[in-house]
Amino acid sequence: xxxxxxxxxxxxxxxxxxxxxxxxxxxxxxxxxxxxxxxxxxxxxxxxxxxxxxxxxxxxxxxxxxxxxxxxxxxxxxxxxxxxxxxxxxxxxxxxxxxxxxxxxxxxxxxxxxxxxxxxxxxxxxxxxxxxxxxxxxxxxxxxxxxxxxxxxxxxxxxxxxxxxxxxxxxxxxxxxxxxx
Length: 181
Known about the structure:
The chain is α/β, with parallel strands linked by helices. It has a single domain, classed as Rossmann fold, CATH 3.40.50. Helix content is about 35%, strand content about 15%. It starts with about 30 loop residues before the first strand and ends with a strand.
């Protein structure tokens, strides 16, 4: 079986089978989190932990990942079998979103938030989105998704490489989000 073999995966909100580990991140519903890091190890660790473990009073969270990394590599590295993963790339294909099409990205994220009773989004690749769009357009997209999250039981994790942004841009990214780790 090759690394890039595609299995039929449902786009429905499905939960991972789970790992034999405990929940180690306290992510609150209706909140978005920014993680200053490069590469995004803490963000992926938190995301995988949330979709793979149950917390007291909460079951496993339903996840949706958007990343610059190829989905098959992410699935292999983090043992994600059921979680939908969208790839930010300029090529066409299944589960691929163009970095210049913020409208489709926003639609997919909001649709997930509206359909998930307890979900978490990992939005990896903000630097790539900004390099293909205006910073203010990307910020408006994040704010729009964040508005929907704040009225739901979902959460969002956004890893950010602080070297890619100036102080003003980092302040704008962080203003409506909490810091994780």
